[in-house]
Design a protein that fits this description.
Radius of gyration: 34 Å
Strand order of the largest sheet: 3-7-6-5-4
Shape: rod-shaped
Helix content: 55-70%
Largest sheet: 5 strands, mixed
Structural class: alpha+beta
Length: 354
């Protein structure tokens, strides 16, 4: 009985194996036939290419079809060789910028961005712009370059080319912001501030949402406003700022407290609020919430303080929230070495720390 079961199983296995072998053979034969058809088609197109006059739409279509066939067969290396050889053989073809663009795209697809970058740059530097399907090849190259280039200096050049050569075809608002960020990376603060100012001058600056740049408008506004301010509220060090604020509180000198506050971007908000929230901007005088009350302050700065930020707990304010933390921070403004690294009283947090 067991022998019969074994023989039956063996027959079924061999039958299944035979079917798999036949299917594989059919697939290989089909692939072989497809490959033969591909080769024959390409030969016909190459023969047609040799007979077609240069700088004609028909020649463009033939080359484009040859390239499409290579792509469909995933023959990327053959396609690169074909396109680069063609450009070398016919240096005056008006569509060479497009053929090199395809070459750059192939290298991008292969993950070879540095090589793709060379081809994009070659197109911009050596070939006149060309419009294919209503798209500027130079714009496409520059847009790809700002994505793959790792050099802030090069990215600055690409952004400037887009802005100066194609002002009506790109989003200038976003590019001014990205240009400013690149200048910051280079330590070119004057150019950065100029770019931030140009960004703020655009009509949609306060509304635009830029990927990976949260609160772009707030960032630019703070830097430009701070640059244009007298900055006379800053202190040489944290100890000097802390002493002046404590002395003013002890003397109930609210005019002095108003003087010590930062005149740019000063905020007053709960711990959960965002400093960029328009409702956090302060317009009141310290006298409004301190006059007639005994304001107390902690002997020492809060334990959460660090070399760049500090918190002073105070209490007794004439407000529904009695506890205020005064927020001090080190000024980060490399453009002006005399101000950079000083300290300012930048805001107030309402309530006990979370």
């Amino acid at each position: 009985m067991k022998k019969k079961v074994f023989l039956k199983a063996l027959v079924l296995f061999l039958a299944a194996l035979f079917i798999c072998i036949m299917q594989a053979a059919c697939h290989i034969r089909a692939r072989s036939e497809d490959n033969g058809e591909f080769k024959e088609t390409q030969k016909e197109l190459f023969r047609l290419l040799e007979k077609t006059a240069e700088d004609t739409e028909r020649r463009f279509s033939v080359i484009n079809q040859i390239a499409a066939n290579y792509r469909n067969e995933n023959k990327e290396n053959e396609l690169i060789l074909f396109l680069t050889d063609y450009v070398k053989k016919y240096p005056n073809d008006k569509y060479n910028a497009y053929w090199l663009l395809l070459t750059a795209y192939i290298y991008q697809k292969k993950g070879a961005d540095p090589i793709a970058e060379l081809y994009f740059e070659r197109i911009i530097k050596n070939y006149d712009d060309l419009s294919i399907q209503d798209k500027s090849i130079h714009i496409l190259c520059l847009q790809n370059l700002v994505q793959i280039s790792t050099s802030p200096e090069n990215r600055i050049d690409y952004f400037n080319q887009l802005i100066s050569h194609f002002p009506d075809k790109i989003n200038k608002t976003e590019l001014y912001m990205r240009l400013a960020l690149e200048y910051e990376k280079m330590g070119e603060w004057n150019q950065a501030l100029q770019s931030y100012s140009l960004f703020l001058a655009q009509e949609d600056a306060s509304k635009i949402q830029i990927p990976n740049v949260p609160d772009a408008y707030g960032r630019a506004r703070k830097l430009v406003d701070f640059n244009n301010s007298p900055k006379d509220w800053t202190f040489e060090n944290l100890a000097a700022l802390e002493k002046k604020v404590k002395d003013a509180i002890s003397a109930q000198n609210f005019r002095a407290l108003d003087k010590y506050r930062s005149k740019v971007n000063f905020f007053a908000m709960s711990w959960k609020q965002d400093a960029g929230d328009p409702n956090s901007q302060v317009t009141f005088s310290m006298r409004d919430f301190g006059y007639g009350s005994r304001i107390r302050y902690a002997t020492h700065l809060d334990a959460a303080s660090n070399p760049n930020e500090a918190y002073l707990r105070t209490s007794g304010w004439r407000s529904w929230i009695k506890v205020w933390y005064l927020y001090f921070r080190k000024v980060n403004f490399p453009l002006n070495p005399e101000i950079h690294g000083r300290w300012e009283w930048a805001g107030i947090y309402y309530g006990e720390k979370l």
